[in-house]
Amino acid sequence: MSQSIIAHRYADALFQLGQERSKLEKFETELQTLKEVFRSSEEIISFLKHPRFSIDQKKTMIAESFQSFSEEIVNLLKLLVERHREDIILDMIQDYIRMMNDAKGIADADVYSVRQLSEAEKQRISESFAPKVGKQSLNLTNIVDPSIIGGIRLRVGNRIFDGSVSGKLRRIERKLLSTNNR
Asked: Are 7 and 97 contained in the same domain?
């Protein structure tokens, strides 16, 4: 079974547990913090994967390091270590966050522009395009790409909205080439 399927199952179980105990938001906040900790500190992952340390030592480290976290999150981390699933922790966190965003009606999107967009511009883009993809808002990541010449290109999942100058030029070129071939 692939790592992503396993990560999704753990995230789904945690999401259901959060719903039952009304802790969805708390879990999300803790998982965001956990994601930053695991991304910024390679030592934690290498410690958890290292065969020289016993599972009990790893569980003790988790309990001590994350004592301010909810019991459910700490127990999940201990379970993942016990089952030698340290590799899926970040994927599991991403899946949980994706589930939370779906529940809130939020989608992640990349917006390509010639320059860095202001928060007001991002907000207007989110308000304009969220209804087109059936969401309430978009969580935008701005990617500066001078090759688009002007305008914006927005990618939400597998949908692309291309209002860039380079995109319009490509469409004109295709149209001209197709009329020349007739």
From this structure: yes
